[in-house]
Design brief:
This protein has 234 residues and is mostly helical. The protein is built from ten helices and no strands. Helix 1 (3-25) runs antiparallel to helix 4 and helix 7 (143-160) runs antiparallel to helix 8.
Length: 234
């Protein structure tokens, strides 16, 4: 199939998928949970590091709100990715297999869910860094990459006790792991096209780069030896 024809026939499906993923991502749990826990008196974006994410909730609000935050952020990514795969499954993309098309849809919708989490339309486009949301996306799109990322995260965190350092390293390794897994296991092992490998790797690179950029302040503190080790508020 000619790719211009493909775009003309399927652009609206992709657009609908991306919009849904973005809107789901925009449901920022950290903001909502903090409002509930403080009876509307505080905004997580004005507490601690100012980041609307799991780590800041853990440090600034407490363990229970942090648990709700991480669970809900994972769930919204799971729903966005599954819906994206479902909508992409009706597409016909030339020489790509149905399984490849679904996974591409999952990766791309995962990116838009992270985008929504970081720039939520419901909360003035000021959100979190997308780490937990990215983890939820990986869990559904490719559990093999998720296992590699989770292992890397645990090793770095247990050694350093610094979540941001583990986040940044995992973000850098995301496209590397994605390429290795899709190339050797899917392309070489199952005969999936190289286009599939490149699209998934490009999406992973985009998400990883986005997460690293969102951690620019953490990187400065790490370089200056000022980044705090994790310590939850009781």
């Amino acid at each position: 199939m000619d790719y211009m024809t493909f775009i003309q026939n399927n652009w609206y499906i992709a657009l609908i998928s991306f919009v849904i993923a973005y809107l789901l991502g925009s449901i920022n749990t950290a903001v909502i949970v903090t409002k509930i826990a403080t009876k509307g008196k505080k905004d997580i974006r004005e507490m601690g590091s100012g980041n609307a994410g799991f780590t800041n909730v853990l440090r600034s609000v407490g363990k229970v709100p942090a648990i709700f935050t991480i669970v809900c952020d994972l769930l919204k990514a799971v729903v966005a990715v599954l819906l994206g795969g479902l909508l992409f499954s009706v597409m016909n993309m030339g020489n790509l297999s149905p399984q490849s098309i679904i996974m591409i849809g999952e990766y791309l919708c995962g990116f838009f869910c992270i985008l929504g989490h970081s720039y939520p339309v419901y909360f003035g486009f000021k959100g979190g860094k997308g780490i937990v949301t990215a983890a939820g996306m990986m869990l559904i799109a490719d559990w093999r990459v998720f296992v590699l990322i989770l292992t890397t995260f645990l090793i770095i965190f247990l050694i350093s006790r610094i979540i941001s350092l583990a986040d940044i390293i995992c973000a850098c390794m995301f496209p590397v792991y994605t390429f290795i897994v899709t190339f050797f296991f899917d392309h070489m092992g199952k005969g999936h096209s190289m286009l599939f490998v490149l699209i998934c790797t490009a999406a992973a690179f985009g998400m990883g780069l986005f997460v690293v950029i969102k951690h620019k302040d953490n990187i400065k503190r790490l370089l200056n030896g000022e980044e705090k080790k994790i310590k939850a508020k009781k």
